[in-house]
Write a structure and sequence with these properties.
Keywords: Lyase, Metal-binding, Zinc. By secondary structure, the chain is of the alpha+beta class. It contains four helices and ten strands.
Length: 251
């Protein structure tokens, strides 16, 4: 907060925080973070939780996520063929990818993605959970469950760097959605081609019109009606999933 003259008592000259603000944290975690001597270690010492989730401990039940994909660390001796590398803005969280191209890449216009990313839409690339290997910041991740609005590790959830708050990925029950703008080399011809989006999702919720010739779905890709690119209106009866189901019934 910005200190003003009226924040000081005329008698004791002690600081009195305004009623509408909260005093600085006095928790042990706050002082441990402020007392770091190693400037490269932007996070915790590893023995206390960050965002109430991550730490270096592995003995508790709530720490078992560290042994499962996508968070499981691959040993150097394992056959993990690195194709791409990515990192957050501050560099505390870094990872590798073993897949040349994502399973799919999409633009999502839902209001949740707009708010969580502070952007008109989210650019997401789908990978298997086993395709990623965290090389740094394994203990420095925070989670957010947008459905319950909670910071517990409950799927599906948003994953972020607990220091600079860069969105790292969306973790689903079976897949992960990574954000190509974190990938090193994404601005090259190879990167743009590898992560090129195939469609738009939740297009009726858009805040900008995009006329790029890509399919624009009203909700989930390949599972909802398409939208007209010129007007943005939903075209009833254009759901690819329902069309496939009808074809199967005919067979």
């Amino acid at each position: 907060m910005v200190l003003r003259p009226h924040h000081f008592s005329a008698v004791s000259k002690r600081i009195i925080p305004p009623a509408f603000t909260r005093p600085l944290s006095t928790s042990p975690r706050f002082f441990k973070m402020a007392d770091h001597k190693n400037e490269n270690n932007k996070r915790s010492r590893g023995d206390e939780p960050h965002q109430y989730q991550a730490s270096s401990r592995t003995d508790r039940e709530e720490d078992q996520w560290k042994f499962r994909a996508p968070y499981k660390i691959h040993d150097k001796g394992e056959n993990f063929d690195v194709k791409w590398k990515g990192k957050c803005h501050c560099g505390a969280v870094q990872y590798e990818l073993s897949r040349e191209k994502p399973l799919a890449s999409k633009y999502c216009h839902c209001t949740t993605c707009q708010r969580m990313h502070g952007a008109p839409f989210q650019w997401a690339a789908i990978f298997h959970k086993e395709d990623i290997n965290f090389t740094n910041g394994h203990h420095d991740l925070g989670w957010y469950d947008p459905t319950a609005k909670s910071t517990t590790h409950h799927l599906p959830c948003k994953v972020q760097c607990a220091y600079c708050r860069t969105p790292i990925m969306d973790e689903g029950r079976n897949m992960i959605l990574l954000f190509p703008t974190l990938i090193e080399g994404i601005n090259t011809k190879k990167g743009r081609e590898a992560f090129a989006a195939q469609c738009h999702m939740f297009y009726p919720q858009r805040v900008v019109d995009i006329k790029d010739g890509l399919p624009k779905f009203s909700r989930l890709a390949d599972e909802s009606d398409l939208c007209d690119e010129e007007t943005g209106e939903v075209m009833e009866g254009t759901n690819p999933k329902k069309d496939k189901e009808k074809e199967k019934k005919k067979e």
